[in-house]
Amino acid sequence: MKIEVRSVPPRAAWALEQAGVHPLLARLYAARGVATQDDLDDGLARLLPPSDLLGASDAARLLADAMAAGQRICIVADYDCDGATACAVGLRGLQLLGATDVHYLVPDRVVDGYGLTPPIAERVAATGAQVLVTVDNGIASVAGVARARELGLKVLVTDHHLPGDQLPAADVIVNPNQPGCGFESKSLAGVGVMFYVLMALRAELRARGAWADPSVPIRSVSGEPSPKGGGQASGAAPRGGTLPQPKLDVLLPLVALGTVADVVKLDANNRRLVAQGLRRIRAGQLPAGMVALFSVASRAYPKATTFDFGFALGPRINAAGRLADMTLGIELLRTDDAVRADELARQLDAINRERREIEGGMREQAMHIAEGLWDEAEAAPSALAVFDPDFHEGVVGIVAARLKDKLHRPTFVFAASAAPGHEHELKGSGRSIPGFHLRDALDLVAKRHPGVLLKFGGHAMAAGCTIAEEHFETFDAALQQVAAEWLDEATLTRRIETDGPLPPEYRRADVVDTLHQAVWGQGFAPPVFSEEVEVLSQRLVGEKHLALKLRHQGQPVDGIWFGHTEPLPARAHLAFRLETDEWQGVRRVRLLVEGAA
Fold first, then answer.
1. Do 190 and 258 touch, CB atoms closer than 8 A?
2. Each residue of 319-370: pLDDT tens digit?
3. Measured between alpha carbons, how far is residue 240 from residues 67, 215, 231, 232, 328 in Å?
4. What does the angle CA 404 – CA 407 – CA 408 come to, to the nearest 5 degrees?
5. Residue 414 and residue 467: Cα distance in Å, rounded?
6. What three-state secondary structure class fits 37?
């Protein structure tokens, strides 16, 4: 492993500090490209406008027309946390804006596969819906959209995934990554795209006079001002609707959760969405389902962090789509009943525990298979593909991520399809390393070996595909060939970017709290420090973690290296994060080791 230290533009760090930013945060922000205090302004007014998002205004008109005609709207969701939160935001938001007939359908990972397929379109039509809205999927659903249109459905695709060579013939597509879209933030999650569509819909309804004109006092039929906004102005013609314009900011906790859980880049716009969601969560303004999730995860929502989204709440929602039915997750996020929310959250927690058990066994077996692909004297292949007949297809993505982290190679893990009629197909999920665009690699494999990939899609760092079992070795060789062409020794060397030494005066619990309250995530990495420390003692705990007593800047401090068992030398150059633990009412700082040079 190579430890690298981020450069810190001194002018930017100084300007931030002069603007009142904590000195340590000023240094961290400057190293991540923040130049001025304005860049840290997370106010809603600083969000990019919906009018910049191609298709958002057309989507708003389509939905407004459907609502005016009393048509049934059906949302087709995806079975991960982004898809579940996007569906919940769509359901809640449309109802807030006046829709009275809104339903949803979520595909089954095993039976239906990913996205809007022709059978899914037929199921939507059978519900009596006239409008079909996809969330977090649809950009690759050419056949599914075509079938929906044949059945007379209006189709609105909202997605954020990269499009293929052919776009679906939907009535409207809203996707910041579609050709011709000039929206500055290409990293919106699926839930973010749906939230933007709702903002555009509210503007469209406002233009149509759906909300009360704020310049006209709203009065009851008796002529007295009505605090509830009922009735219309007495003695005057109605001016627009009689209800106040709904506030969509109540949806931001869900937007924040889905954005972080989907590991999209936290550019400035996404950081504002997440910051606004966190602010409301910490103030207790969050749905009952999120309250219940914080509870079963033993987390405190008044101290919510992005870490909670990615490692506590998100996995519990994802577990439903991996092993059971994402309807559980969506129902949790849409309910306002605290008792029902608690019941659903406990179910998800139990499913997540089962997922961890399955994952543990698969991870060990996958690592055993992977390490058998080369001799000890040889370097690992440039890319890995692993398959075992006993693997569970709902967990292959997590296992691929674990292998990628361990071996620092683009990795695909495959499982046999459990879908009826597809028993000879393998479903694979891949995770990549910086410098290797996974979806582009799959596209090249498809072009070089026509017919090997039955379908594929995804992003630079995560992608999925389906192949016939007989083509596994062909796929493996083709992927390795692309990796050998694209990757060199430098790219295949694991690197960890850090923020350099930690000044000892900042090794305090209150500073750690300050750091944790900030918005960190993909593309805006949480602080990791690095320097040489003295190792005073070390011991294994739980047979797989290294507990440490260290001397940092001349002072003793505890440390822990999770998942590491090899002993350290007396002096070691470590990369570490900061956290606090509490013992007998005293909070102390400890170092969470990320790696050693």
1. yes
2. 999 999 999 999 999 999 999 999 999 999 999 999 999 999 999 999 999 9
3. 16, 11, 12, 9, 39
4. 65
5. 9
6. helix
At 304, which amino acid appears? A
What's the rounded Cα separation, in Å, for the pair 465 and 431?
12
**Pairing mode of beta strands 73-76, 555-561:** unpaired
Three-class SS of 274-338: HHHHHHHHHCCCCCHHHHHHHHHCCCCHHHCCHHHHHHHHHHHHHHHHHHCCCHHHHHHHHCCCH
Nearest to 97 by CA among 198, 216, 238: 198
536-590: pLDDT as tens digits: 999 999 888 999 999 999 999 999 999 899 999 999 999 999 999 888 888 999 9
Burial state string for 93-126 with b = 16 or more CB within 10 A and e = fewer than 16: bbeebbbebbebbbbebbebbbbbbbebbebbbe
Between the alpha carbon of residue 326 and those of residues 309, 344, 495, the distances in Å are 17, 11, 36
304 φ/ψ angles, rounded to the nearest 5 degrees: -60, 145
Q: Residue type for 268, please?
A: A
Cα angle value 331/337/341 (rounded, 5°): 50
**The one-letter amino acid at 117:** T
pTM, to two decimals:
0.91
Q: How many residues does the chain have?
A: 597
**Pair 89, 254: CB distance under 8 Å:** yes
Give start and end residues of each alpha helix (H) in 335-430.
338-371, 396-407
Are 175 and 158 a contacting pair, CB within 8 Å?
Answer: yes
Place of tokens 């906004």: 229
Q: Give, in order, the Cα–Cα distances in Å from 199 to each of 97, 281, 342, 377, 568.
A: 10, 21, 30, 58, 54
> In 3D, which of 493, 412, 477, 498 has the Cα closest to residue 1?
493
What phi-psi label fits residue 311: left (phi over 0), alpha (psi between -120 and 50 degrees) or beta?
alpha
The CA–CA distances, whole Å, from 48 to 42, 194, 254, 257, 268 equal 11, 14, 19, 19, 10
Distances (CA, A) of 405 to 1, 200, 338, 496: 12, 40, 38, 12
Burial 547-583 (b: 16+ CB within 10 A, else e): ebebebeeeebebbbeebeeebeeebebbbbbbeeee
Answer for the pair 513, 543: CB distance below 8 angstroms, yes or no: no
Q: Which pair of structure tokens corresponds to residue 428?
A: 């694979």
